[in-house]
Amino acid sequence: xxTQETARKWIDLFIEQILENKDYLSELDTAIGDGDxxxxxxxxxxxxxxxxxxxxxETLPDLLKVTGMTLxxxxxxxxxxxxxxxxxxxxxxxxxxxDLATVLEAGLEGIQKRGKAVAGEKTMVxxxxxxxxxxxxxxxxxxxxxxxxxxxxxxxxxxxxxxxLGDRSIGHIDPGAMSSSYLFKTMMEAGVY
Length: 193
Ligand code: ADP
Ligand code: MG
Ligand code: MG
Description:
Layout: H1 4-20, H2 22-32, H3 37-55, H4 60-74, H5 79-94, H6 100-115, H7 125-136, H8 142-151, H9 175-189
Bound molecules: adenosine-5'-diphosphate and magnesium ion (2 copies).
Organism: Carnobacterium viridans
Protein name: phosphoenolpyruvate--glycerone phosphotransferase
Pathway: Polyol metabolism; glycerol degradation
């Protein structure tokens, strides 16, 4: 269930996952990008820890908004503003809705409004679209989350830095899809789903 309490646990677990997997995320980004994805998100994770401590947002929309604003403003690179836009979209939707699928859908819309990526371009959107669908149909499992990331290997990148590689981007996992998979796995762990 999506409440301030479960969402706070979710974000805390996500921060932990990002910091634990910082090097791995940057490694994935070294293969098809500029090698900074883990470092970018780790900077965001640390800024988020501080922002949540100082601002201590007490409602669900405020919590999601502080998270989004912090990611947009503190993470260099494409991923910060994109993931930040997801949280800002979720914050707005959560003002009058506590249905997880609806809130996540607004998050996906936030990413796509900002980054213009559609399905099949080898971005985090290729993780978000199937996961949002699975949440809607109540079929999400952690195995599904993992399979979805794995599938980004087969895609040729047409958005973001990886698109500069053309066919050579095939065979590699998209780093942003991997970090979004941490977001969804921690969502399950926190009992939001
Ligand atoms: P940068 O590419 O600026 O160094 P990061 O390395 O932090 O930023 O993030 C790269 C990730 O951002 C990619 O793996 C991809 O998932 C995601 N990404 C890049 N461009 C877009 C876009 N237009 N829409 C959605 N996601 C994108
Ligand atoms: Mg990068
Ligand atoms: Mg970069």
